[in-house]
What does this fold into?
Amino acid sequence: MCKYTGVSYRQGMIVSAKAGEADADARRSVSEARAIGLAIVNHGDAYLEAANSSIVECLPPELVGDVSIKESDTVRSRFDPGLILDFQKLAVMTEFGELSTRTCLTVCSSEMQSKIWTRIVFQPNNEALGNGGLSTELLSLLYSASDHIAAKTNEAIRNLYEADFKSVVGSNISLKSSGILHVFAVDCHGNGIGASIQEAYSELSWSEVSIDKIADRELADALRDVTGVKGIPQQAQDANESDTRFLVDSEAMLVPFMSREKDTGIFVSYTNDDASYCVGLVDSAAGVLPPTRDMIASQYATAEIASLLGRQF
It folds into this structure.
């Protein structure tokens, strides 16, 4: 029997710097990117408040709780390869478990575009898990709430980023969203589903021809549950109306995935003119968070997928 045991969602905004009325691409030197980063760090409290306000405004009544700050550092910086600024982790203890969020901003130089990512991770309590795991209704609620929180947060961060950007580069610069990336993964657990994901992963990885369907009944049903939540485009959902198999739309594709932690997953990928979706399942193996790891399986998966997607821009 398949049980859903955790949820991770990431939404990324691709940000283009435009100069003047002609909206010409504005390049940034490494030194300018560093100066912009320092301006952001100096205004870290404003960025944190923007994220906090977004959570409070966007949480549905079913998930309302007190927002707490999980870390002391307002902003942390790293290079991978551009300058990445990680803002504080915020958490809400809901009736069903902990909902945590974190936003990061990549300040890119040269021709690369900046990215604003907000992640939302849900780790349920025992009551929410029950005997059958998370319900499909809760999965849908979590996706909708995560989508709204991330969209609100990313736009608020873009506005603050634009002000700091202008203070360094010049007032004729504007920062515009040129695309949105959605990554949604659900942890699943069970002897049958684990074996099915492993088998589908091997088949999709090694096949010399494109595979557009999943025949295994349990895996097909689970993919229908995850891709069928409210907010996922029709093209990323099951296109099969004749039998129990999961069939991807002609505009989408099935994607096998294995994280550096060896967590295996199956995703459906779909891209339209201004947005990209990667939605799927990750085998959580033990079904719980192992003591040697600080993140659930879907969190590892969405982090790596987001990184791969972000490097394309």
Residues 136-169 form the longest helix (34 residues). The helical segments are 30-42, 44-58, 126-129, 136-169, 191-206, 217-227, 297-310. Residues 33 and 109 are 6 Å apart (CA to CA).
